[in-house]
Each structure stands twice: as structure tokens, then as C-alpha cells.
Design a protein that fits this description.
Largest sheet: 6 strands, mixed
Distance between the termini: 26 Å
CATH class: Alpha Beta
Radius of gyration: 17 Å
CATH topology: Rossmann fold
Shape: globular
Number of domains: 1
Bound molecules: zinc ion
Strand content: 25-35%
Structural class: alpha/beta
């Protein structure tokens, strides 16, 4: 299999420009996972690779849960590979919730899956929602890690920005490490360009 960066580049999913991220920070690059996952064969290949890592760890997963919208495709394919159930959480007035009749049992082993983990904020919110119903969070996973959180087996330690609990394993296929800036010291802003929200101009 090609490496993850090549897969993103070949799918036109590794965008270069001047982006305003959901965290409010600026970046020259943006990863548009939906462009990679528009090919179900690629989605299934990536999910299989991620599932192999999780199976190899010996962790038992009853259910995969993704925060909508970004994590749903990756999580659904991962659930298929793990022979697990799939549910998703979604925001209602900015609050992460479990809707649509999805139920979680006490003691159910749940793995949280995102497309990309940056600080892991949404993944953690999804975890808290299902934990309230008594679920065990057995692991976090993502296709790609942005380098702030420590993945299973990696020697790189988590940065302060990482919100994932350090006592739960985190699996990702690869790291994408590029700089992000506060708006006041963004070199792209200093060059006079304006940061755009990914998606606002057709990307
Ligand atoms: Zn900027």
C-alpha cells in the first residue's frame, strides 16, 4: 500500500493554501479526508489496516463510535473490519449527543474513531457521551494523527494541546506533522493573504 501522505496527495486531499482551522489557528495545509474516502475501495483498505493494528493489540471492541460528521465514514468501515456495531454522536446546539435511537449498554467496549485527530477534542466529547451510559472506552483511533497526541507504539510524547486521556491507547495509520499558527504570528497573514475556512471555497 502507498503511504498515507501519498494517498492524501493523490486524492487531492492534501490542500495547500492559507486555512483557518476549527481551533481558530492558521495553517498552510489542510487534510480533506472526505476526498480520500470518496473511493470506497480506499476507505476499506485504510480501515482494514487500522483494524489489523487494533486486532493485533488484543483489544476487544463491541462498538465503534464516531463523532459526526468527519469520523463517520472511517468509523463505519472500521466497524465492518472489526465485526463490530457502529454508532455516531452529533452536536446539537454545539453539545455532543447520542440521538437516532442509538443505545449503549453498561460495560460495552467502545472504540472512538475519527478521520483525523488533531487535539482529539471531538473524540473526547464523543467518549464522554457514551461513558455516561456506562460504556468502557477501550481505545481511540484515526486514519491520521496530526502529531499532537501520542499514538500506540510511538516514541513521540503527547503535546500539551492533546486532549485524549493518556491511559487509553490511540491508534493511527500515520502522522502528518505541519506547523499551525496563532493568527497574530502567522507568517501567511504577515505576507498579506487571508485565512479561509476549509470548505468555504469549494474545498
Ligand atoms: Zn494566517
Amino acid at each position: 500500500m502507498k503511504n498515507l501522505e501519498d494517498i492524501y496527495r493523490d486524492a487531492g486531499a492534501y490542500l495547500e493554501g492559507h486555512f483557518l482551522l476549527s481551533s481558530g489557528k492558521h495553517s498552510q495545509f489542510y487534510l480533506q479526508s472526505a476526498k480520500v474516502l470518496e473511493d470506497p475501495k480506499v476507505a476499506s483498505l485504510l480501515a482494514k489496516k487500522l483494524a489489523d493494528m487494533i486486532k493485533f493489540s488484543g483489544i476487544k471492541v463491541d462498538t465503534v463510535c464516531s463523532p459526526a460528521l468527519g469520523g463517520i465514514l472511517a468509523g463505519y468501515e472500521l466497524a465492518r473490519e472489526l465485526d463490530a456495531r457502529f454508532i455516531f454522536t452529533e452536536r446539537v446546539d454545539k453539545v455532543m449527543t447520542l440521538r437516532r435511537g442509538f443505545e449503549v449498554s453498561k460495560g460495552e467496549n467502545i472504540l472512538i474513531c475519527e478521520d483525523i485527530i488533531t487535539t482529539g477534542g471531538s473524540a473526547l466529547e464523543a467518549a464522554k457521551v457514551v461513558q455516561k451510559s456506562g460504556a468502557n472506552i477501550v481505545a481511540f483511533s484515526a486514519l491520521a494523527n496530526r502529531g499532537f497526541c501520542k499514538t500506540d507504539g510511538s516514541s513521540i510524547s503527547s503535546k500539551n494541546e492533546c486532549k485524549l486521556p493518556c491511559d487509553v491507547p490511540f491508534f493511527a495509520l500515520d502522522d502528518f506533522i505541519f506547523d499551525i499558527y496563532d493568527s497574530e504570528n502567522c507568517p501567511l497573514c504577515k505576507d498579506g493573504s487571508i485565512a479561509i475556512k476549509p470548505g468555504s471555497r469549494g474545498n
